[in-house]
Structures are given as C-alpha cells and as structure tokens.
Amino acid sequence: MRILVLNGPNLNLLGRREPNVYGEMSLKGLAAELMLRAPEDVELTFKQSNHEGDLIDALHDAFDYEGVILNAGAYTHTSIAIRDAISAIAAPVVEVHISNVHAREAFRHESKLAAVCIGVITGFGLTSYTLALHALIEHWRNRHD
Ligand code: DQA
C-alpha cells in the first residue's frame, strides 16, 4: 500500500509553532513516529508545502495511491481548488487536524474538503495521523477482502 502524508501551510513549523495548540514534536519527529507505527507493507511518502498549487500537484501525483492523509492547514477552510483535486483523484483521502478545529474560532468550523474525503479526524494531536493511517488500512481491507 502506498500512502501519501501531505501537510500544508505552516506545518513545517510544527514543534515551534504555537506549541500550546500544536504540541512540541517537529514534522520530522511526526514522520518518524508514523513510520514506526506503519505495517511493513505500507509505504509512506511525506510531503509538505506552504503553497496551494504544490499541494494540488502532490495530490495529482498520488492519483493511484491507496490513500492520502491530508492536513491542508488553513487551506482546509478556503480552498475549492484543493477540494476539486481530491475529487479528481482515485485515492481515498482522510482530512486530519492536530487541534480540534470545532473547539476553535468559527472560521475553522467549516471545511471545504470534508465532503469529498472519506472522513475527518480532528483534535487528537499527532495521534490524528496514526488514526488516519489505521482508517485508510481498514478502508482498503474492506474493499479488497
Ligand atoms: C490545523 C487547523 C487549521 O485550522 C490551521 O489553519 C492549521 C492547522 C490543525 O492541524 O489543527 O494550520 O489544520
């Protein structure tokens, strides 16, 4: 199974950015933790960009992947172009957030992406990514068993 872990704007600053909200682990640390937790037959690819078009290109590159774990950061709440890219590709996408977006400002309560994702995981810190990984593995198994 090939799974893309795609992080959007400002997530390169994980560990240094508002640690009271996003925790103290870096994006590299997150990748290492996730790799430790992935079964052997899962190949994880990690990408991060602060630019909307680059995130869209990364989604296109994962067209045929078995899954995408996407934290689109603030683009979650604004980007119809990323939503269209998710709709365009065959890979199932899970929307993840580190913080509980529903417990924060009203503008974070709306996701332009959620309706075209297979599900949303929000508020579990970096565990949101691990949960998304397991969700994608189960999703794949349910379709192939
Ligand atoms: C975030 C939540 C978004 O509202 C915010 O813009 C982010 C991070 C999260 O992981 O909690 O950049 O996606």
What brief labels describe this structure?
145 residues, alpha/beta, Rossmann fold, 5-stranded parallel sheet, 5 helices, 5 strands, binds 1,3,4-trihydroxy-5-OXO-cyclohexanecarboxylic acid
Tell me what you see in this structure.
The protein has 145 residues and is an alpha/beta fold. The protein has a single domain (2-144), classed as 3-Layer(aba) Sandwich (Rossmann fold). It is built from five helices and five strands, in the order βααβαβαββα. The chain has a five-stranded parallel beta sheet, with helices on both faces. α3 packs parallel to α4. The radius of gyration is 14 Å and the shape is globular. The structure holds 1,3,4-trihydroxy-5-OXO-cyclohexanecarboxylic acid (DQA). Residues 10, 71, 73-74, 76, 97-99, 101, 108 line the site of 1,3,4-trihydroxy-5-OXO-cyclohexanecarboxylic acid.
Summarize the structure.
This protein has 145 residues and is α/β, with parallel strands linked by helices. Helix content is 36%, strand content 18%.
Q: What is the SS-derived class?
A: alpha/beta
Task: Kindly report the CATH topology.
Answer: Rossmann fold
For the largest sheet, list the strands in their spatial order: 2-1-3-4-5
pLDDT < 50 runs, ≥5 residues: none
* Total count of strands: 5
**Approximate shape:** globular
Helix content: 25-40%
Radius of gyration computed on alpha carbons:
14 Å
Order of helices and strands: EHHEHEHEEH
Strand content: 15-25%
Task: Please state the average pLDDT score.
Answer: 97
| Bound ions, cofactors and other small molecules, one mention each | 1,3,4-trihydroxy-5-OXO-cyclohexanecarboxylic acid
**How far apart are the termini?**
14 Å
What's the CATH H-level homologous superfamily? Dehydroquinase, class II
Total number of helices? 5
CATH class: Alpha Beta
Number of structurally distinct domains? 1
Q: For the report, how would you describe the main beta sheet?
A: 5 strands, parallel
CATH hierarchy: architecture: 3-Layer(aba) Sandwich
